[in-house]
């Protein structure tokens, strides 16, 4: 074991390539709806668009020190952002990055703040309910935040974090049905499903301009949609799951169903890395489903692991997962042939992040504690006590 610690403060602009789409848990769902990614999934964020070790960077907000921990897996160094004072009372639940780290959203129960480099946090909105989930289209500057009453805040934000427009709307669209599930798809389409099974695309720009929901209705009948996920396909394809375990691949541009299948059960739904599901078609076999090639979703038969997968992430042709049992273990599985390349026993953690080469375990601690494991060398690096300077201030 080695202790490496670099206390050099970084400017916020140094935190590059941070992606709101990355998260670290397979838990999905909110009290009243399922829109985007649950706030509870936000923990250690992998800054890679793919799990390439050349840019194995992770960040996590440290509420005790009021700053971001930035961990470089390649150089095995820990650095810090500048310090931000926590706004309001208590600790932030989540810290969500905008494009290239130019600004950040801080979530604290029912309050949403925005932080820009060198500035104190600005209160964006004080919701009636606790913030439950978010969705984003950083390329076009749109961000959506949803509270426990399904109040939906749509923001248009500039590259530097200035709010150009906003609209806070309720979940009822036509007096007869309300929003039940949704997400922002690759290509900028905000696709939602209502309680009567209708699929709608929300025009975020016009909804902000007109201060009302501006929508386009799609005609296909999809029972009772409960979960919508992005496939990463530029043609705005969505994976949609309904209450009868029927899975659809839907084209949100043409408004057509590309593929559909009823599955026996759904084991996991996750928006970590590539949005994905793990399903059973029968009692014996489990399949991972994600993405789209334009004509069908991608699917892979998984080997039997005889464990419960607690947290899953898909990227770069691999399934990475934390499995629970008598001990917690990390699995790295190659999707093309089901090869389990790595299995590592891990200790307790509060937040976890991983690429194909590293797993990062953060523990919430006043003193600070981070464990990094390299899969190829099995080297374990411990960072501890790095918050002492902030506690002494």
Features:
2 helices, 393 residues, five-stranded mixed β-sheet, disordered N terminus
Choose one word for the global shape: globular
Instruction: Return the average pLDDT rounded to an integer.
Output: 80
The number of distinct helices, counting runs of at least 4 residues, comes to 2
Low-confidence stretches: 1-32, 48-54
End-to-end distance: 29 Å
Could you tell me the strand content as a percent range?
Answer: over 45%
Helix residue percentage: under 10%
Largest sheet, in brief, is: 5 strands, mixed
Order of strands, main sheet, comes to 1-36-35-34-33
Number of strands: 36
Structural class: mainly beta
**Rg for CA atoms:** 21 Å
- Oligomeric grouping of the chains: single chain
Short description:
By secondary structure, the protein is mainly beta. The protein has helices spanning 204-210, 388-392, and strands spanning 2-3, 9-10, 34-35, 37-38, 45-46, 57-62, 67-72, 77-81, 94-97, 103-108, 111-116, 122-126, 131-137, 142-147, 152-157, 163-169, 179-184, 190-194, 199-202, 215-218, 225-230, 237-242, 246-251, 256-262, 265-270, 276-280, 286-290, 298-302, 308-315, 318-324, 328-334, 339-346, 351-354, 358-363, 369-374, 380-384. The protein has a five-stranded mixed β-sheet with strand order 1-36-35-34-33, with no helix packed on it. Strands 2-8-7-6-5 form a five-stranded mixed β-sheet, with no helix packed on it. Strands 3-17-18-19-20 form a five-stranded mixed β-sheet, with no helix packed on it.
